[in-house]
Amino acid sequence: MKVLFIASTLPFWFLKNKSKVKANVIVARNIKIFKMFKSLQLSNFKEILIFDKIFLDRKKFDRIFSKSNEFIVFHECCWDKLDNLILKYKIPTKVFPVSHLNYFNKVDLFKLIIIIIKYGYSKTNLKNVLKFIYWKFIYMNRFKYHLMPTEGGNKNSFILVKELNYKASNFIQSFSHAHGFNGSENIDIYDSDIIIFLISDDVINIKIQMDYYNSIIKFCHSKNLRVYCKAHPECRASFDEFNFDKVIKKNIPFEVMELKYRYKISLFSTSLIFQPQKSISVYKIMRNDKRVLNLKDKFNLRSKHLKGFKNYNKISTPKTIENLFQKIVEQ
Question: What is the mean pLDDT of residues 125-129?
């Protein structure tokens, strides 16, 4: 039996448009992902379960976590309970990562100490050192370790996460078919009068971002273009006060909206990799703002993450707001 596990919305486009993956059972990480996945109405998936509820039924648990099954997963990290069960029962697993965690090169104890020296002391960074020592003792080489920048402009802290080390387990295989919304660049050419802003707390807080976006919105309206806002699902900010023509529901994954648009604009959103020739990143415009100079290192890490996708070079990265205006009016 094939069991497919979904932790986030990132693989939705792959599963809906490009995937020939067949599975008997879908397991969603939580009720939120469960509801969103069901809304896609994919006919080739018959049974959908919620991860935590499996543990309430012993027969169901034994049926799912059987060594005779094959698992298909998409997450890179942060689903420790599932990862540990895969290792415990040695279940054959195929991994189709959509994103990546390569903010830093190899993370080890020395690197964690250097982080504290370079970025400053914080309780989170100190906990990372202790967690790393504990995890290495418990799991040995079964995991690889990564540091991720925290959201919302905290310049001192990073989150330590672990990823299954595929090479250390002969029952785990990794494939690149879904990475970076592979295939989304092969789209039909069409015109639209819609510009979409993808907004989240990517290092720079919303207020600073909107200082830039407001001038872009004004320019778009002067050219009779409609301007939509799509916030990150975890973003708590309200955008009703800004002059957007429409605020799209943030829980809908952008990649499966099937909305025709001229360009999408963002700072570091992973969705910029989707249909990259219709993407504009403003990071070169914002990076020298004096209000974010103390976040320069984290800013560069976010940039490195975006550059880690093979289609990054197809994204437009104007150096000035004037260059961006010129790009917007291009057909």
Answer: 91
> How do beta strands 25-28 and 93-95 pair?
unpaired
- Measure the CA–CA gap between 58 and 56, rounded to whole angstroms: 6
Could you give the domains of the chain? 2-98 (3.40.50), 100-163 (no CATH), 194-328 (3.40.50)
Rounded-to-integer distance, Cα 115 and Cα 121, Å: 9
Is the Cβ–Cβ distance between 132 and 145 less than 8 Å? yes
Contacts (Cβ under 8 Å, ≥6 apart) of 91: 65, 66, 67, 69, 70, 71, 85, 171
| Cβ atoms 191, 331 nearer than 8 A | yes
Residue 191 corresponds to which tokens in the numbers above?
A: 């015109």
The answer to whether 212 and 229 are in contact (CB under 8 A) is no
DSSP code per residue over 50-99: EHHHHTT-HHHHHHHS-TTSEEEE---SS-HHHHHHHHHHT--EEE--SS
- Tens digits of per-residue pLDDT, 41-52? 765 677 999 999
Q: What CA–CA distance (Å, rounded) separates 229 from 148?
A: 26
- Among all chains, which residue has been given the structure tokens 């005779």? 68
Residue 190 sits at the vertex; the CA angle it makes with 189 and 192, to the nearest 5 degrees, is: 145
Highest mean pLDDT among 15-29, 96-110, 128-142: 128-142
pLDDT confidence of residue 230: 95
- Residues 251-261: tens digit of each pLDDT: 888 999 889 99
Burial letters 153-173, b for 16+ CB under 10 A, else e: bebebbbbbbbbbeeebeebe
Q: Which residues fall within 8 angstroms of residue 38, CB to CB, at 6 or more apart?
A: 48
